[in-house]
Design goal:
By secondary structure, the chain is of the alpha/beta class. The chain contains 12 helices and 12 strands.
């Protein structure tokens, strides 16, 4: 089986080549993102392996099929960038990695919260310049605060577990209740109650057509003044322009993002020699109370190893004609 990787970075090659020792597939790596134009690179490949910012729309999937591809392997959990209806129509199999170290994302969520709250990123830069002044570095105790988690699946529960050590009250909102969340002391509430009560809101739900811009001017108006918002899920959950307005008014006191709705144009690249064309992102980068990382929640040794092993196991099952538990199909 020949598998072409798109959006491939050096670390993808390292982890996948290591795991491939057990499978012996023919792996081809392309740095290009996958879209309708680059799909031609998959000429003669059996499968493609894509990532979070590839564009697997109808035109792309049709081109992949023309090139002879029969399987799309997503090396991530989310699949909001895949037109599943079209994949189904074309008979393309789509597989993914539903769960890989939810702790990796939960721990990154916590790193963002602690860094942003206690300003360790700013303190680090100051101290290196021999500036030991504390002005502007004031934080707040997490202990005794109320945290609201939107999405209480694997990552939401892993986050609740870490959070519970800080002595916070944990509220949750989900379309399905998860007993594991309640066992940790989490309390389910409706969204409006969560907005009105939480000092810190962290997003852990997938992006679907129903929750695009879940955080918008209306929901922001329902939140506590000075609320901290954390998004390690998908950028499209937040109307970034509305959050910029709320940051300027002080309604949002802190914002931590590992994902951004227009991240496809910038993340995973070194643009340090270029002029940033995205004015909203440029504005966000000017706020002292905004912390942005470039979609690295998943980026631990353990998670990368699991991603590579599960992706190649998925493809192995497809190759052998066996049923793959990690196949995703359109719900029609
Ligand atoms: P999961 O499937 O275990 O849990 C998602 C939860 O969200 C489920 O309980 C589901 O019922 C709930 N949900 C669905 N729609 C909702 C809505 N409209 N409102 C509230 N809850 C809703 O998924 P998991 O593993 O916890 O991942 C969550 C998300 O995290 C993924 O969809 C992905 O977008 C993101 N992610 C980000 C990574 C990063 O590197 N920053 C890495 C991995 C995942």
């Amino acid at each position: 089986m020949r598998i072409r990787f798109f959006s491939a970075q050096k670390y993808d090659r390292e982890f996948f080549e290591r795991s491939n020792a057990a499978f012996g597939f023919d792996l081809e790596f392309s740095e290009s993102a996958l879209d309708a134009d680059t799909a031609r690179l998959a000429s003669g490949d059996d499968a493609v392996c894509a990532f979070v910012n590839d564009t697997l729309d109808a035109a792309c999937l049709q081109e992949l099929q023309r090139q002879g591809v029969h399987t799309v392997a997503m090396r991530c959990a989310g699949f909001n960038n895949v037109d599943l209806q079209e994949a189904k129509r074309l008979g393309l199999q789509v597989v993914r990695v539903p769960a890989y170290s939810p702790e990796a994302v939960a721990e990154h969520t916590m790193a963002l919260i602690l860094t942003l709250n206690r300003n360790t990123h700013r303190a680090y830069a100051r101290v290196r310049e021999s500036n030991f002044n504390l002005n502007g570095l004031l934080g707040f105790n997490l202990h005794g605060r109320t945290v609201g988690l939107i999405g209480t699946g694997r990552i939401g529960v892993a986050t609740a577990k870490v959070m519970s050590g800080f002595g916070v009250r944990i509220l949750g909102y989900d379309v399905f209740e998860n007993p594991a969340f309640k066992e940790l002391g989490g309390e389910y509430v409706d969204l409006d109650t969560l907005y009105a009560t939480a000092d810190l809101i962290s997003l852990h739900c997938p992006l679907t057509k129903d929750n695009h811009h879940l955080i918008n001017a209306d929901s922001l108006a329902k939140m506590k003044d000075g609320v901290m918002i954390v998004n390690t899920s998908r950028g499209g959950l937040i109307d970034t322009q509305a959050v910029v307005t709320a940051l300027k008014s002080g309604r949002v006191g802190h914002l931590a993002l590992d994902v951004y709705e227009q991240e496809g144009d910038v993340f995973f690249r070194d643009l340090s020699d270029e002029i940033l064309a995205d004015d909203v992102l440029s504005r966000l980068l000017t706020f002292p109370n905004v912390l942005i990382t470039g979609h690295q929640g998943f980026f631990t040794d353990e998670a990368m190893t699991q991603i590579a092993e599960v992706t190649l196991s998925n493809l192995d099952a497809v190759n052998r004609g066996e049923e793959c538990d990690n196949e995703i199909t359109a719900q029609v």
